[in-house]
Design goal:
Pfam families: GMC_oxred_C, GMC_oxred_C_1st. The protein has helices spanning 15-26, 123-129, 135-150, 157-162, 167-178, 192-200, 227-233, 285-298, 398-419, 482-499; strands at residues 3-11, 31-34, 91-95, 100-104, 183-185, 237-240, 243-250, 256-263, 269-282, 311-314, 318-324, 341-345, 353-358, 368-375, 383-386, 391-394, 422-423, 435-436, 439-440, 444-446, 465-467. The chain is globular. Strands 1, 2, 6, 7, 8, 9 and 21 form a 7-stranded mixed sheet that branches. Strands 5, 11, 12, 13, 14, 17 and 18 form a 7-stranded antiparallel sheet that branches. A 3-stranded mixed sheet has the order 3-4-19, with no helix packed on it. Helices cover 25% and strands 22% of the residues. The two termini are 29 Å apart. It binds dihydroflavine-adenine dinucleotide.
């Protein structure tokens, strides 16, 4: 097959890939981005690019015939999931033995589906997780750069106190305060000026129209509107969609050779393409990048990759839980899909937890307070190559999830006891499941900075091969991870463009 050449190739168009593409393009380096998902810019027959959470259709999930939403049931009824047609939809749920991982698919990766929470980690915890990184430089240069490029903003506190759309958050805050716990506002890349117009009835509803996880039609500054738009604007960056990189090898002249499958909307492989480049940047996310490198090492394609490739993976301690409120403590039928507040008990060294107050935007009063807890779970797992499938297996165990659950339970037992409330038993699929212990939103690690790579994301054992995404983060960062991933990618690109090109 013919080989397409580009000086630089970037695999994936999430946070890590988007930063790499922009900075390469600005440096005048012709760059090709290969993204397995589609470009989300064309309205469907309903006039919308994305579907909402209440009426999911084929656009919702990556080649499924039934949606797999995080909340499996409501009042034990399977009302949450719907039959759909298989299609390259925007949200994927990747199943491993004891853990399934939600990821975004499309130009913009996770930014298309996520909850927009844009949190800079505590400096002390960042320094603990990244002992070899200059934290002063991160907090002086790269975190501010990431926040500004991503368009991070905060909710107007006066509007927050009065709007019906955040009553669910205020109820949870009250319960936290009754427990003596601290709450904090969480910044966002959802445009709150737009959200206020939605509430006023002067703009089409998105966050206030049950849109999130399957995409937002308005209001959200996803990467296609920020980094990737700027990257294309340099004139040096091209994005090929519906192309999944399958393998990486190195030619005798030192250039990188990639094999990619181009699929159509039915998922059929319509072409297998060969690419070659001088500089290869991996931004396929914790799952995508780690799989490519584990496969390359264990099939003998890139034998010099070290044993840290595939290791150090964690869930950011994720677990979800719902509490049942008293009848007089209504959370409201109208709920914004964008969280703006967290319960911050990270300073509790016996049991550090940061719990986001999450919406349950059903359009009905539910009396549910829902949370996404990020716990300081120290458990890590590794990916191994599975020669029978050509894919990878993840060694995460149920006991490792139980560590996150136990930590979250300690916090929410306190909240329930202070408020004389109980848990909800009807949300996660079985009558006994109170804590969601089988999925996560924050896959981190697999090619940890300083272990699988040098201190700047250069993959050990090879030159001109870089990791720029969430695989660099050692399994836990204590807050939602995309600001950290973006800032680390900015740091890598500054160094690499100065020294390697
Ligand atoms: P990311 O996953 O964003 O991008 C990887 C891209 O590479 C994808 O587009 C993928 O299709 C593509 N790809 C992978 N393998 C490939 C291959 N072999 N060939 C071609 N393309 C390939 N975080 C946060 O900070 N705040 C929040 O509010 C939330 N909320 C949230 C909600 C939900 C539902 C999810 C699923 C996730 C979140 N997150 C979040 C997590 C956040 O979205 C996540 O950490 C980042 O998107 C990870 O960025 P990366 O650059 O690592 O990969």
């Amino acid at each position: 097959a013919a080989v397409d050449n580009a000086p630089a190739i970037v695999v994936g168009s999430g946070y890590g890939g988007a930063v790499a593409a922009l900075r390469l393009g600005q440096a005048g380096i012709r760059t090709l981005v290969l993204e397995m998902g589609r470009l989300w810019n064309t309205p469907g027959s309903d006039g919308k690019v994305f579907c909402n959470t209440a009426n999911p259709d084929q656009r919702s999930m990556w080649f499924r015939t039934r949606t797999e939403a995080p909340l499996a049931t409501f009042l034990w009824l399977d009302v949450v999931n719907k039959d759909i047609t298989a299609y390259p939809g925007v949200l994927d749920r990747v199943h491993f033995d004891n853990m399934s991982v939600y990821v975004g698919r499309g130009v913009g990766g996770g930014s298309l589906v996520n909850g927009s929470m844009a949190v800079t980690p505590l400096k002390s915890y960042f320094a603990e997780q990244f002992p070899t990184v200059d934290a002063d430089e991160m907090y002086g240069t790269y975190f501010p750069r990431a926040n500004s490029m991503l368009g991070v903003n905060t909710v107007d506190p006066t509007w927050f106190e009065s709007t019906e759309w955040y009553q669910f958050t205020r109820v949870s805050r009250k319960h936290a305060q009754n427990t003596g716990l601290k709450t904090t506002f969480v910044p966002s890349v959802y445009d709150f000026a737009y959200m206020q117009k939605e509430a006023a009835g002067t703009a089409t509803k998105s966050a206030l129209g049950q849109e999130v996880i399957y995409g937002n039609n308005y209001g959200k500054k996803s990467l296609d509107k920020t980094y990737l738009a700027a990257a294309l604007g340099t004139g040096n960056v091209t994005i090929n969609t519906l192309e999944k990189v399958r393998s990486i090898t190195r030619a005798s002249d030192g250039s990188w050779l990639l094999t990619a499958d181009r699929i159509d909307v039915t998922g059929a492989v319509v072409e297998t393409k060969q690419y070659s480049c001088t500089y290869l940047f991996l931004g396929g996310g914790s799952l995508g990048t780690t799989e490519l490198l584990v496969r390359a090492r264990d099939t003998g394609a890139l034998p010099a990759l070290n044993s840290s490739v595939g290791a150090g993976w964690g869930t950011n301690g994720n677990t979800m839980v719902g509490r049942a409120n008293h009848l007089w403590d209504t959370v409201g039928a109208n709920q914004s899909t964008m969280p703006v507040m967290g319960i911050d008990d990270w300073a509790n060294t016996d049991n550090p937890v940061f719990a986001e107050i999450a919406p349950l935007p059903t359009g009905l009063e539910t009396w549910v307070s829902l949370y996404l807890a990020i716990t300081k779970n120290p458990q890590r797992a590794s990916f191994t190559y599975d020669s029978s499938t050509g894919g990878v297996k993840l060694g995460w165990t149920a006991a490792q999830s139980a560590v996150s659950v136990a930590m979250a339970k300690k916090l929410f037992d306190r909240i329930n006891s202070a408020n004389a409330t109980i848990y909800r038993y009807d949300l996660f699929g079985s009558t006994s499941k109170v804590f969601a212990d089988d999925f996560c939103y924050h896959p981190l690690g697999g090619c940890v900075l300083g272990k699988a790579t040098d201190n700047y994301g250069r993959v050990k054992g090879y030159s001109k091969l870089y990791v720029t995404d969430g695989s660099l983060v050692p399994g836990n960062i204590g807050v939602n991870p995309f600001v950290t991933i973006t800032a680390l990618a900015e740091r890598t690109m500054t160094r690499v463009l100065a020294e390697d090109t």
